[in-house]
């Protein structure tokens, strides 16, 4: 059995259980599907195969951790929004300048499809599945383009 066939088998065998756990944690169908796809995409990109006799536990732990990361990210955004609302801060020159720098870098240095995926996901707020449908690509490809974009942007701005 090839590695690709092994991932397919794991996906088919454990998808429903992973999706159920993600739904319980995230309370959002599309976000849950995105989380499961992200877990399998990361496993494939890293060449990770769960231990044979612990596949279910390993994959459920992966999806739990991914969902917790998503929840933490949401909590940070909510806290920031609350703080901003409380302080009624309306002047963000430094944030706007940083944002403009990132957008300019992305426009100039990212491949066109990667830039388009990044824009649809973060500027337009589309979910992975929606981005995939708009561009006619798979959700896994959306994830790979986003990972590439974020990696390139981080690398560039961490060097400054």
Q: What report would you give on this structure?
A:
This protein has 160 residues and is an all-alpha fold. The chain is built from seven helices and no strands. It has helices at residues 3-26, 29-46, 55-87, 93-109, 112-123, 128-135, 139-159. α1 crosses α3 and α2 packs across α3 (55-87). The protein is globular and about 50 Å long. The N and C termini lie far apart (46 Å). The mean pLDDT is 86.
Keywords:
single chain, 160 residues, mainly alpha, globular
Portion of residues in beta strands equals: under 5%
Distance between the ends: 46 Å
Major sheet = none
Number of strands: 0
> Helix/strand/pairing class, anyone?
mainly alpha
Helicity, as a percent range: over 70%
Layout of strands and helices, then pairs:
Elements: H1 3-26, H2 29-46, H3 55-87, H4 93-109, H5 112-123, H6 128-135, H7 139-159
Helix pairs in contact: 1-2, 1-3, 2-3, 2-7, 5-7, 6-7
Question: Quick gist of this model?
Answer:
The chain has 160 residues and is mostly helical.
